[in-house]
Design brief:
Layout lengths: L1 E2 L4 E2 L1 E2 L2 E2 L4 E7 L7 E6 L24 H9 L3 H9 L10 H14 L5 H13 L1
Antiparallel strand pairs: 1-2, 3-4, 5-6
Helix pairs in contact: 2-3, 3-4
Length: 128
């Protein structure tokens, strides 16, 4: 992969495949081989003659469980509860409190835009 300051070019065994690549992910974990994932555009198009040059994986992204667990572990439970109980959309119905907590967590996961959401999501991380 090369970058000229404006755009990148991707070549596999000297063949330019840039027009078929929508994005490139590079991951390097300690004690493992680096991994390069080419996201194709349009999906599913790949010159079959290049299949022998790389290990091709087709499927779904990795399970998000570990990332979700780390996200939830970083939250302060009292702040989550406080934010959920002060929501304007909190409903006094069975499951209403749980629904408010879930909506609050979803907002926090998306980055949120409210100062309270940012405080809730970052307080525990800063204290650690």
């Amino acid at each position: 992969m090369t970058f000229d300051g404006w755009a990148y070019a991707v070549a596999v065994d000297g063949r330019d495949v840039s027009d078929q690549v929508a994005a490139v992910d590079v991951r390097a974990d300690p004690h493992e081989l680096p991994r390069v994932v080419l996201h194709l555009w349009p999906p599913g198009t790949w010159p079959t003659e290049l299949d022998v040059l790389a290990r091709v994986e087709v499927g779904v992204p990795a399970e998000p469980g570990a990332a979700v667990a780390a996200f939830l572990d970083a939250l302060d439970p009292l702040e989550v509860e406080r934010a959920a109980l002060t929501r304007a959309d909190l409903e006094n119905v069975p499951g209403g409190g749980t629904a408010a907590v879930l909506r609050q967590l979803a907002e926090c996961a998306r980055g949120g835009t409210l100062v309270d959401v940012w405080t809730m999501c970052s307080t525990r991380t800063r204290a650690s």
